[in-house]
Each structure stands twice: as C-alpha cells, then as structure tokens.
Amino acid sequence: MILQHLFHAGPCSRADLARATGLTRVTVSDLVAALLQAGLVEELGQQPRPDNKVGKPATLVGLRTDSFQIVGIDLLDVAAHGAVLDLTGAVVERRGVPEMPTGDAGVRALVALCAELLALATHPVLGIGITSPGVIDEAGTVLQAPNREWYDLPLAEILTAELGVPAQVANDANAAALGEFTFGGATGSGLLTISVGDGVGAGLILDGALLLGQGAVGELGHVTVIDDDVPDAMLGTPERCACGRLGCLETILSVPALRRRIAGLDPRAAEAALAAVGHRLGLVLAPVVSMVNLTEIVLSGPADLLGGPLLDATLSTIRERTLPYVSRDLQLRMTTLGEDGALAGAAVLVLSGRLGVS
C-alpha cells in the first residue's frame, strides 16, 4: 500500500502515508523503516510546516526509482524486443532478436536474451517480465501459444530457475492494458486496450483490476465478424483465419490485413476501406461497452492505419448502437506509449508481482 501510494502520488511524509492508507502512524513508521533498509525508498529532506506552525517539520520519503532495474521482453509472432528499464518504465538499454525460433529452441533463445539483458543492467534487477501472445495463466504457464509452438509450458518457472531472477509471464494484450493503466494515463475504471499487430488481442481492466477469467479474456480477434450468410460489399468474402475458422476479426483488423486492404487505393478509397473495418470493429465492441460500461478504449498499433477513419468509424458505430447514457463519455484513442507499450506492460508485471505496484 505504501509503495503503491508513493509510486502514484510521489514523495510525502509518514503522516500523509498514514492518512492515505488508513494505517496507524506507528505501523507506517515501521514499514517505512523496512523499506529504507531494503533500499526501495529514501528520505528526501524536510517539508516546511503549513502556516508557520510550531513543531518539527515533516520528513518526506519517496520511492527510489533508480535503485533497481527491470528486464522486459515482448515476444511477437516472429521477433522479440527486449530492454532494461528503470522503475518508471523508461528504457535504459535495448536488445532484440529479429527471428525467434519456436518450441524448445525458442525457450533456449529466450533464456539467452534474458541473460544478455541481465548482463547489461547497471543496478540490481528486481525481476524479469515477459509478454507473449497466447493463453497464459496467473502462474506464468503458457497454456497454448500456437505460433510459438508452446503448450502447457511453465515458462515463468523455467526462466526463474535458469536465471536466478524472479520472472513474470503474461499475455501481451493483458500486459499492454497494465502498461496503459500504470504509465499511459488511463483511469482503469473501465478500460479496454486493443493491440493490433500480426494478430489482434485485448486486455480489460475494470475498477482498477485486470480481468483474467480462465486466461483467455480479451480474445476479440477470433470473434466471427464476416459470414457467408451476411455479405459485406466493402469487406468482401470471409477469409480463413489462423485459428481455422472463416471471417474472424483478425482477418480484417490485423496489420497485414489492413495493409493488403488499402494497397493500391487512392487516398479517398483507402479511407473508405479503413472506415469499413472500423464500422465492423464498432459492431463487435458495442455489446462490450454496454455490458461493462467501458469509459475508455485504447488502440495500440500503427497510427496511420488505426487512427483517423478507422478510429472515427469505430466510435461512431459504438455510439449509434448503445444507449446515449452508456457511451456519451466514452473515449476512444490511440495509445500514448507508442512502440514501447508492451515493454512498459512487461515492467508493470514485475512491479505488480514483486512490489504490489500497478
């Protein structure tokens, strides 16, 4: 509780911490002493008393964001992006693998990349955060990630044992939601993040808590959106998805699908094609918005594809198909974290798992 408050509110006195957390001053003093000894917080000098009141000035304490570092890795369908980050999510060093092998060889390559990044750290490493496509449980076991050929793989356990540093592993879209909530300015009262790359994934945060279900919350990419029985003049006939079914959202919203759709079109036709995809995305999201009363939807991916006509059509469709009271305050925007959103999410996995901070 104390670390969480210092992370979000910044330096404050022990008395302020007691008021904010509801803990007694004695308990707060004992906890701050333990955190000082662990090197996680530091004293920052005295704070002048308000209105020149008599008494000893309060001493501020703050989180030492430079005392530890985090290794974060974002596993894509083919490549892997890795970094050493500080506790604020800022990247210190980068490394990557352009083509990651799959199966057991992929695990060995991941261990090697983690080891390389650990060697680059200039401060003690708090933990390792890994984000990956696929269904992943709370223990960091990859239940299924077909593109990586991983099934029932206890990845967090393997990495911790091999590297001697605690590892946290989570679905990439869920981690992106955590990154947006912690570093991207989202409120988290009703937040849906949609990550668009080679596939489409989503993460959902309600009332400040990430929803996991059985590990497959947010699989919007495999909702069927085009059917032979419901022809769509703009989107054409349904395509076969990687999951084996026809007409999944991923077949029209993934980056490769969007690039193919606008290839060779003049600007006006390209805008219309992107707006058609946005309309279909809005049809998928409208029931979700109504069901859980979302307040914010954040898109992550190439802004030239997702921003503009696609984003506008999505929001317009949602508002047309939901009660005005439900969607009147809904915000739909691009991420503020850019390409490092997934790495920021990997950092939050460690902050949450090791310090209880998110």
UniProtKB/TrEMBL annotation:
A Pfam entry, by short name: MarR_2
Coiled coil: none
Species, as recorded: Georgenia ruanii
Descriptive protein name: ROK family protein
Domain (HTH marR-type) ranges: 2-42
SUPFAM superfamilies named in the record: Actin-like ATPase domain, Winged helix' DNA-binding domain
Protein family membership: Belongs to the ROK (NagC/XylR) family.
Lineage start: Bacteria, Bacillati, Actinomycetota, Actinomycetes, Micrococcales
Molecular function per GO: DNA-binding transcription factor activity
